[in-house]
Structure formats: C-alpha cells, structure tokens
User: Which sequence fits this backbone?
C-alpha cells in the first residue's frame, strides 16, 4: 500500500470485513501511519477512509468512512464524524447516487462501470453512458469496477470525479507501477 501511495494513490480505503475490533483497529492505525508517511515522501496528501467502521475511523483519525448498503445512513455518520469528514456511499444506479447525495454523502462509488477485475460480476456493467447519467448530479462520483489505466481517461471524460480500484493495483505484478500508470492516465497529458 505504501508503494502505491508513493506512486500516486491519493485515497486509501481500508476494507477488512473479517477482522474483529482490536485487529481492525491495529491494522487501521498501521495503514494511517504508513500511508501518510508515503504521501509525505512524495510531497502530497493522502486521505484515509475506513469501510463501515465509524468507531475505527474516529479512533485512528481517518479522514472519513465509506458506507455500504447495510451501514448507518450518511446523516448519522456525518453527525458522529463531524462536518469536515468524508462520508462515502456505495451505489449501483443513478437513483441510488441521487439518494445518497440528498442524504449528505460527500461522494459515491458507482459500480460496476466495467466488469470487475478483482471478483466475479454480480450485476451488469453500467458502462460510460450509465456513469455519465449518474455523474450529472451534484454529488461527486468515483467510478468503480473494471477501471484501470487503459480506461481511466474514458471514465473521467464521462463525468467521474475520480476512480476507485482494487484489482488494477492489488492484482498487478507491480502494484507501484500500476498505481503510477493509473495516476498518469487520470492526470492526462
């Protein structure tokens, strides 16, 4: 993870569903320290988000939380984390994006845009056209699902505020090189 941050990753989402309280807290603390150190080494900032666990996000000083379908609502999360915290929501349609924005989400992940790289697809991909419709609203949309350096520019052109990836970096032979390629694709010429 640190090498990916050094190579250009500017948000890290900690998503470990199978860990208990003490284990996720220890991991989150280590991730925050390593990611911030790596960002400092490249002269940048990294934002750390914890998936679903508001308590852990608060305890480690994360920048926010990412909520799934079975988590608390964005208003409750914002009330606990404060007005400056990032509160993200996972979405799968334009209607879900609009609802999340209306409920106070800072941003949404919209997935899948393309067939996922890290897991079997569970629903049909939305494609660039589906992304464009969802991104036309007021809440920033991060494109997720099958996004890599080869199609990152396409999703940004369709209106994505950014991308959320797993497989493009974690499944790469060289995660740092994959992160750097993705950063170049997002930053453009």
Assistant:
């Amino acid at each position: 993870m640190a090498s990916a941050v050094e190579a250009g990753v500017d948000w890290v989402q900690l998503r470990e569903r199978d860990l208990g309280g003490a284990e996720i807290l220890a991991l989150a603390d280590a991730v925050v320290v390593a990611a911030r150190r790596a960002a400092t080494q490249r002269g940048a900032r990294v934002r750390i988000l914890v998936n679903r666990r508001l308590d852990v996000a608060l305890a480690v000083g994360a920048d926010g939380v990412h909520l799934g379908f079975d988590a608390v609502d964005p208003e409750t999360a914002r009330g606990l984390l404060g007005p400056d915290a990032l509160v993200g929501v996972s979405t799968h349609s334009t209607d879900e994006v609009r609802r999340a924005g209306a409920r106070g989400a800072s941003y949404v992940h919209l997935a899948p845009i393309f067939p996922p790289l890290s897991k079997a697809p569970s629903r049909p991909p939305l494609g660039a056209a589906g992304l464009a419709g969802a991104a036309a609203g007021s809440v920033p949309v991060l494109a997720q699902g099958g996004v890599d350096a080869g199609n990152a520019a396409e999703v940004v052109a369709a209106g994505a505020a950014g991308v959320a990836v797993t497989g493009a970096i974690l499944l790469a032979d060289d995660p740092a090189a994959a992160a750097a390629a993705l950063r170049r694709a997002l930053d453009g010429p």
User: Anything to note?
Assistant: DSSP finds nine helices and seven strands in the chain. The first strand starts at residue 11 and ends at 14. The CA atoms of residues 32 and 48 lie 7 Å apart.
